[in-house]
Amino acid sequence: MQHPQITPRFAPEITPSVEELEKQERLLVFRQFTCDDAWALGSLLVEMARERQAPVAVDIHRAGQQLFHAALPGSAPDNDAWIARKRRVVERYGSASYLVGARFRAKGTTFEESSRLDPDEYAAHGGSFPITVENVGVIGAVTVSGLPQLEDHRFVVEALEAFLKL
Predict the structure, then answer these.
(1) Residue-number span of the structural domain to which 136 is assigned
(2) Residue 27, φ and ψ in degrees, nearest 5
(3) Judging by beta carbons within 10 Å of its beta carbon (0-12, 13-18, 19+), is residue 10 exposed, middle or buried?
(4) How many Å separate Cα 32 from the centre of its chain?
(5) CB proximity list for 39: less than 8 A, separation 6 or greater
(6) Which of 48, 49, 79, 131, by CA, is between 20 and 30 Å from 163?
(7) pTM value?
(8) Where are the beta strands (DSSP E) in the chain?
(9) What is the pLDDT of residues 110-149, one digit of tens each?
(10) Do the domain assignments include residue 61?
């Protein structure tokens, strides 16, 4: 029996392109990001997850400090480990964890095969998105874990669009 790859190679017709993912990052930018913003964004994500009965954990970090964390029914301690691994990708690359994985797939490889980073510490799977402040850059990450990776990514993007009223 053949084992599946850690990072699936998706067909391009069902996944967003690298260009589309990069556009999301250009548009989803904050003027500022305070502790109150973290609480409001985290609360929005929790509200959305409760409405959908999504078994997720939600995390927001800024400059190495955890500003928000919630675990909803159906989530597990493993989701916290995934959050940490996906967040480290955002912190290292300054891009969404899903976009980093997509860039490797666009080159015909996977993050695990080519990044030279420990897969126990880094996961280029969807669900962690950079918190970017205009004229400053990436200062943190908002991360969701518990759904399939593309759904985790889309869930965070949807919340950011609503929060930023785009």
Answers:
(1) 17-164
(2) -85, -35
(3) middle
(4) 19
(5) 67, 68
(6) 79
(7) 0.90
(8) 29-30, 57-62, 65-71, 128-133, 137-145
(9) 999 999 999 999 999 999 999 999 999 999 999 999 999 9
(10) yes
